[in-house]
Design a protein that fits this description.
The complex is a heterotrimer of chains A (151), B (212) and C (389).
Chain A (H helix, E strand, L loop, with lengths): L9 H9 L3 H11 L5 E17 L6 E16 L6 E6 L3 H13 L3 H31 L13
Antiparallel strand pairs in A: 1-2, 2-3
Helix pairs in contact in A: 1-3, 2-3
Chain B lengths: L8 H17 L5 E2 L13 H10 L5 E4 L8 H9 L2 E2 L8 E4 L1 H5 L22 E5 L4 E10 L2 E8 L4 H8 L1 H4 L5 E6 L2 E5 L4 E4 L15
Parallel strand pairs in B: 2-3, 2-4, 4-5, 5-8
Antiparallel strand pairs in B: 1-9, 6-7, 6-10, 8-9
Chain C lengths: L8 H16 L9 H7 L1 H11 L1 E2 L1 H10 L4 H12 L4 E4 L9 E6 L50 H6 L27 H9 L3 H12 L8 E14 L8 E18 L7 E10 L3 H13 L16 H6 L3 H9 L6 H19 L10 E3 L5 E3 L16
Antiparallel strand pairs in C: 3-4, 4-5, 5-6, 7-8
Helix pairs in contact in C: 2-4, 3-4, 3-5, 4-5, 7-9, 8-9
Chain lengths: 151, 212, 389
């Protein structure tokens, strides 16, 4: 899946940031160096999401079990629309960073920089990592060769 | 977001929950909530906002009476608590109302709330009632569990509310529990409380809860 | 009668201290880190997550460390922690067709689109102890091909397209949730699958094995096993579209089972389904077999074997409940036991005294010839027990 098309929608950014490690995101955010102060209006907080599966993969839903989930909502100094972030696990800072990026991306001039300087590289890194995983799995694909049958 | 959540969601939420418990355990006693401020144009008391923040979550549903949805309350409560908004009062775990709502526009049109069943009385609604007056004394006399002898309560012009709660006795253990809020002050009246209009009249002096 | 017993605080505190010491082991060796466990004991971590019904590898590894590797204890710890968290969301049902596969095999077709992908499996190891692991051997990086995997569409889709297998469609029913409302037998399939997904693997394995040995045979084929990473999405008020919150590891097993048909319906294969957090292949296979066995009544089969009886299977599947009830026998039962001891002594006294001629049925004779009524069963219920301290 190619995520490098710009500009990205808020849900595309949210996905990419949730699939990125917090350390990497922290680094990318620092490089952007957007002059911004924010405060949290909800969270950051950790709870759970009930994960659902489907019978037979395609049938009715059933409850498989829960997973930890953190979320945060932030507001910037200028009182622009809220930014939101959700991420699997218990890392409050990760959720807050996602919300912060979301809030900043409400400003068109920042959105452009975020997509070009943060989202672009992250999307390429994710694609590359997944390509590696896929090639590792492909190395365990079975090549059948038919033995000569008896007359 | 103009509606503030608790500054420390866990500790503040637990403290308020403990207050609601204490209020329920001793019906008619006054409790002062340390509640986050509500917007200027809000139609509900800070005490009830704190109660919503403490009691509502993804598993609960809330019905907001028309007229109380002011200042973006519905969005704020779903944002902060994740609770679902019920479209009808009888589908709600909690219902935000005024005494006027309980009076209904006509004699037979008071809203129907869930009162639970004999097997599951816990499925009854809890009313969160917005009041203009809430004080000790007054001409409503409460008695029952958690009340030594009796306790008198002043709820202002709220006859439809007290009549409705008094009717709990008829269908017990089914019924409605109520948390009354005025400003920062709250009082609880669970369904086990017996209510009657006491004979003594109330002095008219300075009854509003906000005037102290 | 209730006798409150108190005491033992110091003994308990010292027991905990000794436990911590035992857990730590020899101080001259490095302490295990939670990250190491999550990494190098990943299958134990996955099992703990599946049975605790909470996906969080770090917490599961912590539970495993704290429990000194006792899986049932670790599951209990994680289950207990789970109760402290609020539920913030429900996910969209997982689309297992979209798993980023690391393993995908089918026992029903040799040639399938995308091929048979073995992944990091123990299947073809020789089960010989590898003494190199006693030394610090270098581990080579995994092999990689030039090309990525081809698309691997779900294998049962082929059978489904031909109408050869019962179709699974979504009628939009909201699933029952046993963590919110206790199961009320008989329960529907969604409830059964939730209970099986958190059920003890050993227990499910034994039950599924019993079906293969003839106790509720249902002629299974492993249609497809898929293991890999899958993105999870939740619906939130703040966004119009679902939002992805990350990836989790999941295992899925689709069993293809014996036909059913009726006057109206042509014979077709039936299904059993297994799904679990983490890399839990054996668990999902067992789950799929037991799911199918529990569908006996629905599919008009005789319900004759243990694995086909929902109440029996499901009420005993949870290791936390089972371990709790078995373990509670360790709690003080002093009064219950005293009453049984008393009864036993009376019975033995009565037994030691030979019956006399005029004794008639129903009463126990005493040696002076008078009748004494048979001792009554102990009145105290076995469930009213004393707990200390």
């Amino acid at each position: 899946m190619n995520q490098t098309h710009l500009p990205q929608t808020p849900t595309q950014r949210q996905r990419l940031l949730a699939l990125t490690s917090r350390e990497r995101l922290e680094e990318g955010w620092a490089e952007l160096a957007l002059p911004v102060d924010h405060r949290c209006v909800r969270g950051p907080e950790t709870g759970m999401a009930m994960v659902r599966g489907r019978m037979g993969g395609t049938g009715n839903a059933f409850n498989l079990g829960e997973m930890t989930l953190s979320r945060a909502s932030v507001v910037l100094d200028d009182g622009a629309p809220l930014g939101h972030g959700w991420v699997a696990g218990r890392d409050h800072r990760h959720a807050e960073l996602i919300a912060l990026v979301d809030a900043c991306a409400h400003r068109p001039e920042w959105a452009e920089r975020i997509d070009a300087e943060l989202m672009g590289p992250l999307a390429r890194e994710l694609d590359a990592a997944r390509e590696q995983d896929s090639r590792t799995a492909a190395a365990t694909r079975v090549d059948f060769f038919t033995m000569v049958r008896g007359e | 977001m103009r509606w503030q959540a608790f500054s420390d969601p866990v500790q503040d939420g637990q403290r308020h929950f403990r207050q609601v418990l204490a209020a329920m355990a001793e019906p008619g006693t006054l409790h002062d909530a340390a509640a986050p401020a509500v917007p200027e144009d809000a139609a509900i008391a800070p005490a009830l906002w704190a109660t919503l923040l403490s009691l509502c979550d993804l598993d609960t549903s809330l019905w907001i009476a028309p007229g109380l949805e002011a200042g973006g309350l519905a969005d704020a409560v779903t944002f902060h608590t994740g609770c679902r908004l019920a479209s009808a009062p009888d589908e709600a775990d909690f219902a935000l109302v005024t005494p006027g709502v309980l009076a209904g526009p006509g004699r037979d049109s008071t809203p129907a709330f869930a009162e639970g069943s004999d097997a599951y009385p816990d499925r009854g609604s809890t009313l969160l009632v917005v009041l203009d007056t809430l004080a000790e004394g007054g001409h409503w006399r409460l008695a029952g569990p958690g009340i030594p002898d009796s306790r008198d309560l002043d709820v202002g012009e709220a006859t439809p509310l007290m009549t409705r709660l008094a009717a709990n006795q008829v269908r017990f253990p089914r019924g409605l529990d109520a948390i009354l809020g005025c400003g920062e002050r709250l009082v609880a009246i669970p369904r086990s409380t017996r209510i009657e209009a006491s004979v003594s009249a109330t002095p008219e002096e300075d009854r509003a809860c906000t005037s102290q | 009668m209730y006798v409150a017993v108190k005491g033992g605080e110091q003994a308990i505190a010292n027991a905990h201290r000794w436990l911590a010491d035992r857990r730590r082991g020899d101080r001259d060796r490095d302490e295990l880190s939670v990250a190491q466990l999550a990494d190098q004991m990943n299958l134990a971590v996955d099992r703990v997550m599946a049975e605790a019904s909470l996906f969080d590898p770090e917490l599961a590894a912590l539970a495993l460390k704290q429990a000194s590797g006792d899986l049932v204890e670790a599951v209990f710890l994680l289950r207990a922690y789970r109760t402290t968290l609020p539920r913030l969301a429900e996910t969209l049902p997982l689309d297992t067709g979209a798993i980023r596969l690391e393993r995908r095999v089918s026992a029903t077709y040799k040639d399938v689109p995308g091929g048979q992908v073995l992944g990091p499996t123990y299947d073809y190891t020789h089960r010989l102890l590898d003494f190199l692991q006693l030394a610090d051997g270098e581990v080579p990086a995994p092999a990689r091909t030039e090309q990525a995997l081809e698309a691997c569409p779900p294998i049962l889709d082929q059978l489904d397209a031909e109408g050869l297998i019962e179709r699974e469609t979504d009628d939009g029913a909201a699933p029952y949730d046993i963590t919110r409302d206790p199961p009320d037998f008989p329960v529907d399939r969604a409830t059964r699958l939730q209970m099986l997904a958190r059920g003890d693997e050993g227990y499910l394995l034994a039950l599924s094995y019993s079906t293969q040995r003839g106790y509720g045979r249902n002629h299974p084929f492993a249609g497809e096993i898929r293991i890999g990473m899958l993105e999870v999405e939740i619906a939130v008020e703040e966004c119009d579209a679902p939002v992805c919150i990350g990836e989790i590891a999941v295992s899925e097993c689709q069993m293809i089972n014996q036909f059913a048909g009726s006057r109206e319906l042509a014979p077709q294969f039936t299904r059993g389904y297994g799904l679990a957090f983490g890399r839990n292949e054996r668990k999902t296979m067992a789950m799929a077999l037991v799911d199918r066995a529990l569908r006996a009544e629905e599919l008009g089969e005789p319900v004759a074997s243990p694995a086909q009886q929902p109440e029996f299977v499901l009420a005993h599947a949870d290791s936390v409940e089972a371990a709790g009830f078995v373990s509670h026998l360790k709690l003080p039962h002093y009064v219950d036991f005293q009453s049984e001891l008393e009864l036993l002594r009376r019975l033995r006294r009565a037994h030691a005294q030979p019956p006399t001629d005029d004794a008639e049925g129903g009463g126990q004779a005493t040696d002076d010839g008078s009748k004494e009524p048979a001792p009554a069963a102990p009145q105290a219920s076995r469930e009213t027990e004393q707990v200390a301290p």
